[in-house]
Design goal:
The protein is an all-alpha fold and about 140 residues long. The protein has one domain (about 5-115): Tetratricopeptide repeat domain (Serine Threonine Protein Phosphatase 5, Tetratricopeptide repeat), CATH 1.25.40.10. About 75% of the residues lie in helices and about 0% in strands. The protein has seven helices and no strands. It has helices at about 15-20, 25-35, 40-60, 60-80, 80-95, 100-115, 120-140. Helix 4 runs antiparallel to helix 5 (about 80-95). The longest helix is centred in the C-terminal third of the chain and has 25 residues, at about 120-140. The relative contact order is 0.09. InterPro entries: Fis1, Fis1_TPR_C, Fis1_TPR_N, TPR-like_helical_dom_sf. Involved in the fragmentation of the mitochondrial network and its perinuclear clustering. It is a single-pass membrane protein. It holds the Pfam family Fis1_TPR_C. This is Mitochondrial fission 1 protein.
């Protein structure tokens, strides 16, 4: 799969309903969450995101955590929550710097942000908050 198309992967209604019908095990929950992330329906992607976040809170296995973080980042990117997606990917890459899937997804997310002008706005917004904080701190010290 070409990296740019990773955000376009989709699962069918049949795949989702089949995943919902499976017994309630950890592995099946992860598979259901991944299927939901691939849905074309925003509410199902959000449901998959919530399920992955729940699994993350309960996880003690590194492999499960890595899978959950990757698919959470993908879900947030599909929902156009690019900042959240980048944050998750950067967190994953801090612990696994050679993770090619995370690097590829991060590149796709950054391209989308740049294409939509959000990367620049995020940097400008961050700089504005920093400058505002400095000005407020300066005014407080003068008093």
């Amino acid at each position: 799969m070409e990296m740019e198309s990773v955000l376009d992967f989709c699962t069918s209604e049949l795949e989702i309903s089949t995943a919902r019908a499976l017994p309630d095990t950890r592995e099946n929950k992860i598979n259901l969450a991944i299927a939901l992330v691939g849905s074309q329906k925003t509410n199902e992607i959000e449901e998959g995101t919530a399920l992955l976040e729940q699994i993350m809170k309960e996880t003690t296995r590194g492999d499960d955590a890595r899978i959950c973080v990757h698919y959470l980042a993908l879900a947030h990117a599909r929902l156009q929550n690019y900042d959240k997606s980048l944050s998750l990917l950067n967190s994953l890459l801090r612990t696994e710097p050679s993770n090619m899937q995370a690097k590829g997804l991060r590149n796709v997310v950054e391209k989308r942000m740049k294409r939509e002008g959000l990367l620049g706005m995020g940097l400008v917004g961050g700089a504005a908050v920093l400058i505002g904080g400095i000005v407020i701190a300066g005014m407080t010290l003068k008093k």
